[in-house]
Specification:
alpha/beta, seven-stranded parallel sheet, two-stranded parallel sheet
């Protein structure tokens, strides 16, 4: 039986774990939350609760001896990244793929232009710069033989529990007048399919954009989400009001505009997306969400 280690087993990690279990893979997952550790155990995973710098957690990681590692922990904007300690902990394990979950934020704002994996990176925030630094650390591990890393640059993730319901209900979600930017998303189940394909067919040291087929303007997703939930459409506000209400970092993210190509995912890896556009994926996500126990959007 193959063994997988999911580092930072949150929203996407749990969906990935469910698919891997269907494939007969034994899974361990790290989490900082004791409550989430109980959730992992209830789902049939071996939980490894605690900080990634904790000697007990690192010892547990070594004992997993995994064939697959999926790393979802975002890097800190300052201080030491625990990624290095995790890579050291799996040295000597029969790792077939180390999937590092990065972000298309490393491309920066492109004013709506297209980007692909060959586009030069241009991070424009401390968070995006930290992502790029972590990518390079992970890829260096691949070069030195510690871990056959594949970098997965992921766009906005949506799915059941992530359909904007809570922020639409509260009125927290706003659109900025005159600045409906190009955004990119992927349904969490298609993201899981992509991650598995990168494991099975990807190349060490290579970058893969994980996004659906249809970049769209931000207001299109929000308006459809409001309609599906039976809520009022989000309001449009002046840019100055948005800065006052949301703060600079959140507004900068909302103004980031680019279109992400996914040809490497769909053509090179041969992934057939169940939801190539949010126009079909969002209704499916909302329908599944409504079948779930009512709760706020998941972290």
């Amino acid at each position: 039986m193959k063994r997988a280690l999911i580092v930072g087993c949150g929203y996407t990690g749990m969906r990935l774990a469910a698919r891997l279990r269907e494939m007969g893979v034994s899974i361990s997952g790290t989490t900082r939350s004791e409550a989430r550790a109980d959730e992992l155990a209830a789902a049939g995973l071996e939980p490894l609760p605690g900080s990634l710098t904790d000697a007990k957690v690192l010892r547990g990681i070594r004992e997993v001896n995994p064939q697959l590692v999926a790393y979802f922990v975002p890097p800190p904007v300052s201080g030491e990244d625990p990624l290095r300690e995790v890579v050291d902990a799996i040295a000597g394990a029969p790792v077939e793929a180390f999937l590092y979950a990065s972000s298309t934020a490393v491309y920066g704002d492109r004013g709506g232009d297209w980007v692909d994996e060959d586009t030069a990176v241009r991070p424009e925030s401390r968070v995006a710069s930290a992502r790029l630094t972590a990518e390079r650390l992970a890829v260096e591990a691949a070069r030195t033989g510690l871990a056959p890393t594949r970098v997965c640059r992921i766009t906005g993730i949506y799915g059941p529990g992530r359909t904007l319901r809570r922020v639409l209900e509260s009125g927290e979600y706003v659109l900025i007048k005159g600045r409906s930017t190009w955004v990119n998303r992927i349904h969490v189940d298609d993201l899981v399919s992509g991650l598995i394909a990168v494991w099975r067919c990807g190349v060490g040291g290579r970058v893969y954009n994980l996004s659906d087929d249809e970049p769209h303007q931000a207001h299109e997703f929000a308006i459809q989400a409001a309609e599906l939930h039976g809520l009022p459409e989000p309001g449009w506000v002046d840019e100055s009001v948005a800065f006052d209400r949301l703060g600079e970092s959140r507004v900068r993210r909302k103004l980031d505009s680019k279109r992400v190509r996914n040809r490497r995912l769909t053509q090179e890896l041969g992934v057939q997306l169940a939801y190539p556009t949010f126009r079909t994926g969002l209704p499916a996500a909302v329908a599944e969400e409504k079948r779930m126990v009512p709760r706020q959007d998941m972290p």
